[in-house]
Amino acid sequence: MHIAEGYLPPLHAVAWGAASAPFVVWGARAVVKQIRDNPESKLLLGAAGAFCFVLSALKLPSVTGSCSHPTGTGFGAVLFRPPVMALLGTIVLFFQATLLAHGGLTTLGANVFSMAIAGPWVAYGVFVLTRQLGGGLIPAVFLAAALGDLATYCVTSVQLALAFPDPVSGVVGAVAKFGSIFAITQIPLAISEGLLTVLIVRLLSRVSPAELTRLGLIKSANPVVKESVA
Amino acid sequence: MLALDAIAYSNRWRPRHPGEKALLALGLLGAAVALPPWPGALLTGSTAMVLLLGPAGVTLRQVWQAVRVPLGFVLTGSVPLLVAVGGSPWLAWEPSGIPRAAELAGRAMAALLCLLLFATTTPLADSLPRLTRIGVPPAITEVASLIYRMVFLLLDSARAVREAQAGRLGFRTWATTYRAVAGQGGAIFVRAFDRARRLEEGLALRGYSGSLTVQVEYQAVSRRFIAATVGLLAAIVTVTLMARVVMV
């Protein structure tokens, strides 16, 4: 859920930019170091960023009758880890603003915080926790993608509520207002994204197990099918 | 090709230096967001619209197609300002929310038009390599440039896969639609990394040393354009602040 260009007051836009900056700088330093040590990784990072952009452009059927798009942040975080996603997500959000007019440049900081930082960290945390608790790959991927998407939506609602508090009940009431108005599309979308990500992981474990193994998602060839059967 | 990118390559301001267009569009954007919405948003938004339809040569239809989706977010996001919660009754109409919602919608619309002024006149291929001059590390601009180049190839792949799936009735039911979309996701993943690997091999054979040097077309900076931009921005700021003083 992108906050549109010019939607946030200037102080909020600057504050969210400042809040996002350390994470993006951390990600940028990690990427620069990775490229210095291994120049070939630049091409793989380019592929990863392009994949995230195109994944977020896929059309999903929506309960409201139109279509919606997955955020791709949960799957991206599981594949490429949150620090790298902070940078890749920032680049993707910049491209979405300038190539699609989705989001914006003044709201880039806020969108980065919700979609490239909060969403990926929640998704990655849920994925690792589910795996450590003995959960299978498929439930872990579903929960990571769905809860990463929900976290993005919740953080965006808080960002909007902080900018436009309710005159009677303040920020808390505004969170309820913004949360409920966007929940109509965002909660079904989170479930859809979870299901879609599961289907993609099942497909990739059959057609591209080596790549998933290299990215650390699976340990051996075709474990999804084994785990599903088990 | 994406619609905004296609316009960016074909508009009348295409030969201008990206810095000139960035100063104008992003200067207007900053003014639209920082100045009081009335009359700041009206001035910046109408200026951006006139520049888009006039000198830049973008059509009204292209502008409408670009603003439709974000406009939906702005209008939906303005609705909560029209109601108050937590009082008695719990959900009540909030008359003071109308001017706030109008200001918000006006500012967002003006800012959106300023963003479009930049997006429809400046291809990213022109601006990305120049970001190193404002302190962005070359490694980051190169990754961004690679993403930019691969995005279009992958979008074409996704479109081709989607058409093939549609031809096989892949979107007949919700279940088949999900399977089809997952197929598109899987296909772009495989193609993205396959392309990266082939690019890597090709570069290695050409003695790749870690730097992707691309030719950046020389574009002269017009001092007249810069002076006119600064004058325009100063005029908008002055008129807006004077109007606020008169209104108070």
Architecture blueprint of SSEs:
The complex is a heterodimer of chains A (230) and B (248).
Chain A: H1 10-37, H2 41-55, E1 60-61, E2 67-68, H3 73-80, H4 82-100, H5 108-132, H6 137-163, H7 170-207, H8 209-214, H9 223-229
Helix pairs in contact in A: 1-4, 1-5, 2-4, 3-4, 3-5, 3-6, 4-5, 5-6, 6-7
Chain B: H1 3-10, H2 18-34, H3 37-53, H4 60-78, E1 83-85, E2 91-93, H5 97-119, H6 124-127, H7 138-167, H8 174-205, H9 223-247
Antiparallel strand pairs in B: 1-2
Helix pairs in contact in B: 2-3, 2-5, 2-9, 3-5, 3-9, 4-5, 7-8
Description of the structure:
The complex is a heterodimer of chains A (230) and B (248). Chain A is mostly helical and 230 residues long. Chain A has nine helices and two strands, in the order ααββααααααα. Chain A has a two-stranded antiparallel sheet. In chain A, helix 1 (10-37) packs across helix 4. The termini of chain A are far apart. The model of chain A is unreliable at 225-230 (pLDDT under 50). With 248 residues, chain B is mostly helical. Chain B has two domains: 3-127 and 220-247, no CATH class; 134-205, no CATH class. In chain B, 71% of the residues lie in helices and 2% in strands. In chain B, strands 1-2 form a two-stranded antiparallel ribbon. The chains are: A mainly alpha (230), B mainly alpha (248). At the A-B interface, helix 1, helix 2, strand 1, helix 4 and helix 7 of A face helix 2, helix 4, strand 1, helix 5 and helix 7 of B.
Concise description?
Chain B: It holds the Pfam family CbiQ. Chain A has helices at residues 10-37, 41-55, 73-80, 82-100, 108-132, 137-163, 170-207, 209-214, 223-229, and strands spanning 60-61, 67-68. Chain A is mainly alpha-helical.
